[in-house]
Write a structure and sequence with these properties.
Radius of gyration: 51 Å
CATH superfamily of one domain: K homology (KH) domain
CATH architecture of one domain: 2-Layer Sandwich
Number of strands: 13
CATH class of one domain: Alpha Beta
Largest sheet: 5 strands, antiparallel
Helix content: 25-40%
Shape: elongated
Oligomer: single chain
Distance between the termini: 162 Å
Number of helices: 12
């Protein structure tokens, strides 16, 4: 059997399991361990637990229990982190870089310094890294984080008046959605359901499952229910007090308990009553479908074609009117062109002059007859 201890490296940070080996450790002790990032000092948050040797074989051994010198080194590293933070902020302001420095962490052996920052997009910080490496003579790592991690590192007071959950006890972030706020009948006001980080409050997830279980015993909003003394539609539900608000048929509002509901009520108007109330709908003639409706355009075209055919037949069947011998035949210009005759020019009408009465076609005045 082996002793397994759970260690955290920061307050409300992630927890890791290590193999205590032969060391006698208790909850609250500080130990020196080897991690992926290097050597670090952590605190035991859970008492040692005995497990099989096979399960503990894959875990890293604890180096030693932290001494007073180790704790003094931790204090000196904390001072170096503050100096590095101020120096980096000054360089960011001088270069007008679009980024915000959140925190600086040094390894226990000062072999590497990690600078945590937030930014809207990618940032070119190569010149900044050169300045930091030249000043602190150590490995520099720039790590971009999100706004929720920023709130966890900086801490603060929430709108409820208590310390932020993420910086006090919440070790891992859970996904939060607007559906959780709707299920709890909260006002969808961003100022009331958002935290210091600008995201939805983490506490919306705490009671979500409880609200879902209690809501199963209540009817849905908009459903008609009946009680001993009234019948109405469910308007509002208060899960905490176990009451419902009913809107009666006469628009009266009453508040009842969940136990007073006897069951579902009949709909307000039955289909038979609706048919009796509107008898004129049954007297309407059935409307023709689109395929059965006659096409007025086709009918009009057909009628016009028949009229053209009938007119042509009438003109062919009708006899031509007789031509009198004494009547002079006057041909138009178009007919003259067709027959090959030369077109007759009217000089008197060339410039819009009207033909004088009592003149011959060639413009001369006729000679009076001997009988006049």
């Amino acid at each position: 059997m082996s002793q397994i201890v759970t260690i955290q490296f920061s307050k409300a940070g992630k927890m890791f399991d290590f193999n205590a080996g032969a060391l006698v450790l208790v909850k609250g002790d500080h130990v020196v361990v080897e991690t992926e990032r290097g050597v670090g000092v952590g605190q035991i948050v859970k008492p040692p637990v005995e497990k099989d040797a096979a399960a503990a074989a894959s875990l890293t051994l604890v180096k030693r229990k932290a001494t007073s010198d180790d704790m003094a080194t931790v204090e000196r590293i904390s001072m170096k982190e503050q100096d590095a933070y101020r120096f980096c902020v000054d360089r960011i302001i001088e270069r007008a870089m679009p980024m915000k420095l959140v925190r600086v962490e040094y390894q226990f052996d000062s072999s590497k310094a990690v600078f945590f920052f937030t930014a809207d997009g990618r940032v070119d910080f190569r010149d900044l890294v050169k300045d930091l490496a030249h000043s602190f003579h150590t490995r520099i790592e720039m790590r971009q984080i999100g706004v929720r991690d920023e709130a966890k590192m900086t801490g603060g007071i929430a709108i409820c008046g208590r310390e932020l959950c993420c910086s006090s006890f919440l070790r891992e972030f859970q996904p939060v959605s607007v559906k959780m706020a709707k299920e709890q009948n909260l006002a969808l006001n961003p100022n009331k359901i958002s935290g210091q980080c600008g995201r939805l409050l983490c506490c919306l997830d705490y009671e979500y499952e409880t609200y879902c279980c209690l809501r199963k015993n209540f009817p849905k909003s908009g459903k008609r229910v009946r009680t001993v003394s009234a019948v109405g539609v469910v308007d509002k539900i208060n899960i905490l007090t176990g009451t419902l608000t009913l809107k009666l048929d006469d628009n009266k509002i009453i508040v009842i308990k969940r136990d007073e509901i006897l069951g579902d009520a009949a709909p307000l108007a039955s289909p038979a009553a609706a048919s009796v109330a509107t008898p004129s709908s049954s007297l309407r003639p059935p409307q023709r479908s689109r395929e059965q409706r006659p096409d007025p355009r086709r009918k009009q075209e057909k009628t016009s074609l028949e009229s053209y055919t009938q007119t042509d037949r009438t003109e062919k069947a009708a006899p031509a009117p007789p031509i009198e011998r004494n009547t002079p035949i006057v041909t138009t210009s178009s007919e003259a062109v067709k027959t090959g005759q030369p077109r007759k020019k009217h000089r008197s009408r060339k410039h819009g002059h009207r033909k004088q009465s009592g003149t011959t076609p060639d413009g001369r005045t006729p000679t009076p007859s001997s009988g006049v």
